């Protein structure tokens, strides 16, 4: 089963658009685990166990593991997710961007060492920076397109003349991903909920690609407006990420139950926003 089919199936099975990001910071662990790097797996696995039937995907952020020397914990966590939630795809958030043999090694790291179903990539070195990942025909890749941070506009909003269909660089990336770059049919785009008008422009360029959307909640993104601009149909996955609000929902020993409660609330918020959008859509 390829990555897009995994997303569609998880969406139907769990009735969810919610992706839970796994960004472990030992200094923010609940009181009984606080500061304990050797409890990284325990903390993350508990969140996974609590939320496995609530999400469309999990998204571990590789830097949070490597910064504390917890790569072995990440390997163990990836296996654990495959065991307890085999139908929930895993997006490795690595934002890799390199060429040639180095990109090939990053692809091996993501798909063979860690067993990810998809990963995030920076496409700003061009097609040859993503080609090594597309050789894994059933794996997905989300290209950074219009990101949620304010500084993203420094480059992504530059005007382009080489693509008559696109006004800005991020629109050109979306156009390329929809057409010439999508060699394995598994490409998606990262777009921030903080710029819904830009999601609308991305959708015009890439009407059939899955979107990975951070920025709902603490960063100011609105669920209703996001789905109004991002949603196409059930065959075109929309994956909306939440990390800290769920991971650190409680500092008590019941942190996993609190995470589940927060995830359920987020799922219901998103489903309600989608229902509202579909009820008024022509």
Secondary-structure topology with pairs:
Elements: H1 3-14, E1 18-22, H2 40-51, E2 57-60, H3 62-66, H4 71-84, E3 91-96, H5 100-113, E4 118-121, H6 131-134, E5 140-146, H7 153-156, H8 169-178, E6 187-191, H9 196-205, E7 211-213, H10 223-230, E8 238-242, H11 244-247, H12 255-280
Parallel strand pairs: 1-2, 1-8, 3-4, 4-5, 5-6, 6-7, 7-8
Helix pairs in contact: 2-4, 2-12, 8-9, 9-10, 10-12
Task: Give an overview of the whole structure.
The protein has one domain (3-280): Aldolase class I (TIM Barrel, Alpha-Beta Barrel). It is 44% helix and 14% strand. The two termini are 33 Å apart. With 282 residues, it is of the alpha/beta class.
Strand content: 5-15%
State the strand order across the main sheet. 2-1-8-7-6-5-4-3
Number of distinct beta strands: 8
In CATH, what is the homologous superfamily? Aldolase class I
Oligomer: single chain
The helix-and-strand class reads: alpha/beta
Low-pLDDT runs: none
Largest sheet: 8 strands, parallel
Treating each run of at least 4 consecutive H or I residues as one helix, how many helices? 12
Approximate shape = globular
Instruction: Determine the fraction of residues in helical runs and give it as a percent range.
Output: 40-55%
**Any idea of the CATH topology?**
TIM Barrel
* Domain unit count: 1
The mean pLDDT is 94
Query: Roughly how many Å is the radius of gyration?
Result: 18 Å
């Amino acid at each position: 089963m390829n990555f897009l089919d995994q997303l569609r199936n998880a969406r139907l099975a769990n009735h969810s658009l919610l992706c839970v990001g796994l960004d472990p910071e030992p200094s923010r662990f609940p009181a009984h685990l606080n500061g304990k790097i050797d409890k990284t797996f325990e903390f993350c696995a508990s969140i996974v166990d609590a939320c496995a039937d609530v999400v469309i995907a999990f998204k571990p952020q590789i830097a949070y593991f490597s910064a504390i020397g917890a790569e072995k914990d990440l390997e163990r966590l990836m296996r654990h997710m495959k065991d307890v939630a085999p139908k929930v795809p895993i997006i490795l958030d690595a934002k890799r961007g390199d060429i040639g043999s180095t990109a090939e090694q990053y692809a091996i790291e993501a798909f063979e060492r860690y067993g990810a179903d998809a990963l995030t990539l920076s496409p700003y070195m061009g097609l040859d920076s993503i080609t090594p990942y597309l050789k894994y025909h059933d794996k997905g890749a989300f290209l950074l397109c219009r990101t949620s941070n304010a500084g993203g506009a420094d480059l992504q909003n530059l005007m382009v003349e080489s693509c008559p269909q696109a006004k800005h660089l991020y629109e050109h990336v979306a156009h390329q991903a929809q057409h010439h770059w999508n060699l394995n049919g598994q490409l998606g785009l990262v777009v921030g909920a903080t710029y819904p008008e830009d999601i609308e422009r991305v959708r015009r360029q890439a009407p059939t690609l899955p979107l990975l959307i951070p920025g709902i909640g603490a960063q100011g993104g609105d669920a209703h407006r996001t789905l109004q601009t991002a949603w196409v149909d059930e065959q075109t996955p929309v994956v909306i990420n939440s990390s800290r609000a769920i991971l650190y929902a409680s500092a008590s020993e019941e942190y996993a139950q609190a995470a589940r409660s927060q995830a359920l609330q987020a799922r219901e918020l998103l489903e309600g926003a989608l229902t509202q959008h579909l009820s008024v859509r022509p």
